[in-house]
What does this fold into?
Amino acid sequence: MKSFFSSLSIKVGAIVIIAEVIVLAMTGVLYTQRFADEVDRRVENQLLLPGKMMDAGLLELDTVADAEQMQVLIGEELIESVIVGANQVVFFSSEPAYLNQQVDNTPLDQSLFDASLDEGRVISLDEGKEIVTVTPIFASDRQTVRFFVYIKAANTEAQAEKANQVNLFLIGSVITIVLTSFIIYLAFKFTVFDRLEKILRTLRQIERGNLSARVDHRGSYDEMGALATSVNAMAGKREQAENDLRKLNEELEQRVAIRTRDLNVASQVSRQATTELDRSSLLRKVAELTREGFGLYHVSIFLYDRAKESLVLEEGTGEIASQMKAEGKAFQISDRGLVPQAARTREVALANNVNVDGNHLTNHHLPRTNSELALPMLFGDNLVGVLDLQAEQAQRFSPDDIRVMTTLAEQIAIAVRNAQLYEDSQDARKEAEKANSVKSQFLASMSHELRTPLNAILNFTQFVSSGMLGAVNDEQVDMLVKATDSGRHLLSLINDVLDISKIEANSLKLFIEHDVDLREEIDSLASTAEAVLVDKHVALELDIQDIPLITGDKRRLRQIMLNLISNACKFTDEGYVRISLRPEPEHILFVVEDTGPGIAPEEHQLVFESFRQTKSGLKKGEGTGLGLPISRKLTEAHGGEMWLESQVDKGATFFVRLPIHPVHLAEAKEITI
It folds into this structure.
């Protein structure tokens, strides 16, 4: 259906029909209007005829009463005929009720019978369906009106004549349109459409691939013939272009296949470079991938020894490479040959026919070599080694091959460098782990050794200050108490160092209890907090809710809470310190909130690092920066988490969420972390 309406013949036919319809419609309107006017004038004249004949003395008054004669005279159906005297009295009428009546006593319009009327008057009633004529009849002097003839008749015959004329015109128009359209269609069909269809059929054949199709236009020299000639010429050129394109496409497919193979090999080598970090294994796999991917005879990879200025065979393909490695295959960078040449010049060294190229060195392990390509493996400006490729075919390496394999050599250089860096990093990691282990063992040992004499010093000092060894005065007691306090502070620092050392050495033990009551611990710690805040304008607030007993190391859980509470009390000079303990589903949340100086967002992670302190902590000049790191590690050892929320000058809030019954501690009595 769509192709039917898009046909040129249909479009031309539609245009012709539309043009004819417009012309005929305009002509028909003018013609029918003129015809209607002529019919109307004829009907009016016929209705006026009886009155004019009476006025001329050619018609008797009694004729008006004869309906048949009146029908003949007026040509229409008589409805009513009336004769009105000059005194406007009806003295004859086809309607008996009007006789001898004044006009104003009848339905007749009195204004129609005006003595000044000098000729007949015509009135159309009921939208042209009825016509009324009033004709004055004059006396012999032609000055005085004797009476008026009133005739009312139907206009049916005239309307029917008009309708018949319109119907005849419409039928004629339709016949004219059909005949002219058919004639025009036949004319266009044989002169344009059939010839254009031939051209279209030929173009469709060409479009489907039949480039030998041609338009037969013999003996035709008009525009359609010129079009057919152009189509034939275009088809010939396209056929030639198609043949050329087919050849180019075949060549392109071949080149694409080769480049796809090259990219596939390069991709596999790159994948090996990113997934394989063992240098020997990496180079062995890369060499084999390169040989198989490019269809080569042999692939060798030489690495550069800067100290000896030599190129040593590191890996190659097949049993031949193993034999050459066993023989210690190597080159000095100053030797003759393509491999040393590529290393010296940092450029590609090529011998596409080794039989005529003096730079090629014959290798009895590779007797079938006819082409050799050596590519320097560069990492930046540094020489890593040389990739040596050998093929059985002469002229094997094209410029495209050289570009691809140069990229391949660069990838291998990067892979070798990454493998070397990985080996170096592994060695460095082992050394660092060894040093860290020694450090942790040393700190643990030293801390343990320091605690024993320090405890003895604290005990002896307390004995002296209590007077057990003799009388002491108040000043001496004050000094001894200060010495004891300093010793306790030093013991606390040593304990922190010992704890962090044990944690780093994975030797800290947790002694598990299954009925730890944190509320009891908070009550004890609150007393300690009050003692610290006794000289400060700081309120201690407690929000302790009912919580279940939990599983964990009671002493270490107390240590976590003590570190957070003591930090809050130490850094808060005014405001409040709020301690909260509330239950959650399967967890307990411990919160310490203060109105101290706060911690900048960029320092949030810093406070949980060993031996690191914030700016506020450094100003206080106390502690080692180990309390929070130890607390977080102990929290995590219990299966919990610790975090903080804080901004500068807005205080800090530390959160500790502990599982009520950690799964990993369910059956344990003692674990080492």
Residues 134 and 150 are 5 Å apart (CA to CA).
